[in-house]
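Reviewers of the previous submission asked for a worked example of the structure-prediction workflow described in the proposal, so we include one complete record here. The input consisted solely of the amino acid sequence. No template or homolog information was supplied to the procedure at any stage.
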Amino acid sequence: MTAAVAPIDHDSRAPRPERRPFAPGSQMWEQTGLITFSLTAGSAFLLQTMEPTIAAVVDEHSSFRTDPAGRAFRSIASVMMWIYGGDEALAEADRLRAMHASLNSVDAHGNKHQALSSGPWAWVLHTAVFAFTEGNKYFSTVKLSEAEKEAYYREVVQLMRNFSVAPKEIPATFAEWEPWFRDQVENHLVATNVADDYLRVIQKIAPPKQIPAPLRPLWRTATKPVGRLQYFFTVGTTPEIIREKLGLTWTSNDERTLRALGWVIGRTVPVLPERVRYFPIAYEARRLERDRARLRKIIDLRPM
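From that input alone, the workflow returned the following structure tokens.
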């Protein structure tokens, strides 16, 4: 069963559509929890750091510079809750809105920014649409049809409703979303110091505070290749216009390497055990649903 999606009503006076958690059968349920999610999460966050309001708030309030690993783990766990948390998914959305309600900032030009401004709040989830379609382009052997992209977009619309995104910020269809997204990337996103810092941070992953000082050189040695790959995947799956705005180099050889790695990943991940190819929250939620289905079957077959 998928989360039902009501038509978008852009009349601000109309009642908001129902918020509903996701369930088995949706693309979100099948795709979001895969470990390949992390391969385009970097480019999605990079796009967020170039939205002026998000950049200002992240610059002042985020711990991504001082605790990048912890920040990444917390973000992934939160996203997993959005999809696999059942009724707690809605509580997680409410928790995040409450947490961001007081995250305001003033930039160097004196402009005031609020984390819950409707456009920036929606932009975070719009980058998820980009990350999903871009991830499918590089890291999957089964390419999405236009109908499947539209179906996925409808699920993201439901996710936006769960996060109380204003209807005016939601294009009605995926076909309308594509040119809208391109316009945002080309004409609204700007190079920021936060984007530059993020690209620097992911290349050299700072050790968590829990790691004793004598072990930190070992951490840096162990995570160096991880950082290089994360940077490579982030830059490679970022729109070309964004690379130009940030002055990033991406060669035809880089593109060939990315596609070759994607070919290997696309054929390797599907054959991994479910416990390995899904993040922990996603795996446990999927296992629990199978257990519930087996119990339902036994109940339905009981002697009467």
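The chain is about 65% helix and 0% strand. We consider this example representative of the routine output the project will generate in years two and three.
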